[in-house]
Design goal:
This protein is mostly beta strands. Helices cover 0% and strands 52% of the residues.
Length: 423
Amino acid sequence: MKKLLFLSIISIAGHILHAQNWNQLTTPNTRNLYGCWFDETHPDTGMAVGWYIQNNDRLPFGFYTTDGGASITSGSLFQVYFYASSDVWFTNSYNGVVVGNGILQTTDGGVNWNLIVDAAMTQAGILENVMFTNSTIGYAVGQRYDFSYTSFEGMLYKTTNAGGSWTDYTVSQEVNSENTQLHAVYSTGSGVIYAGGENNLGFGNTLFKSIDDGITWSPLNFSQNIHALHFTSSDTGFAACTNGLYKTTDAGMNWVNVLPTTSSLTALKIKNGFGFTAGANGLMYVTTDNGSTWNQTSIPVTTTITDISIISPNLAYAVGTSGTFLKYTNGVGLQDLNETSNLEVWIDASFQLHINFDNNSTSAIAIDLYDVNGSRTSQIAHQSFPKGHCSINFEMNSYRNGIYLLKIVSESKTLIRKIVFVK
């Protein structure tokens, strides 16, 4: 028999949206962060990377969390001939890369890193941005010296085996009066790649396009300083620039400033129609319609946001200068959770927590228990469940009396229930 006397469950229910909040997380130090990534299948697990100056060297480091930022630890990424870690991307929970003056790869979730491309191979250059189009194909861009070591060229590195090896290409050359300081890369697939960056020459184009997977490049009619790129289709894309957000609807041929700003926009991410663009002085905008409209939103810092990682419309993270690490949450109620329904939760006489639900999702679902302060006390399950009726049990005999939050996160929705636990 269900022992409901041990449990009082209050649903955060209906269609009422909770406040959309960015909260600042506590980091081990205030060094600048330049890139971040969070695991869609384990949304509490993520990594951010940055570098700091010591004895004229750009020493690399990473921040790690496995509890949604409740605790963040710092780790060194230093290896001989690798420094200036600028961006990070994982293709799954275990395989990932970090780019800087070379490329590191991990196959064990970041426990160990192997140097795949070193500083000698990048000709004293720096790779600043990396992205993957699927589990195996990825691209990274930056600037390096040419073989004469007297002028610069824009470079692209490409992998077709999840970062295990890379091939390099020249995007632009200073000797040809082309801008070379590339900050952003985006591929829409089928061999189409965009690479953008600074107008370091003071004239000329800052955006380049390849339609043959990086072998050859053509300059596009665009001269603004580009800090980030994102495309929502093969034709529609956005560029975060020094003076605003630019949009193209014809695959980069023409661009319009759809969001003029007085502060630089330095970060841009959109996922399933929901996204953010952000930049200097704590400036941030949000879209819920795939970039058709943007609304300014407040964040608790005035630093520069450098990168954003979006899990769902209910969960995202952002990093920036001075150790900035932010978490966005937007909780919804039971009726909004389309992927799981008919939820039953109770505790039996032996203090076993029973969770039963009907599942219609093929993606992973995270089930966690938190205390009232928002700290995760237990990771109950992070996995894919078979379609149909599912059951999972969790031992609570060691828990003290008090209030706990049961949180269930699917690919696009979140459910939270408050549990008043009394033995």
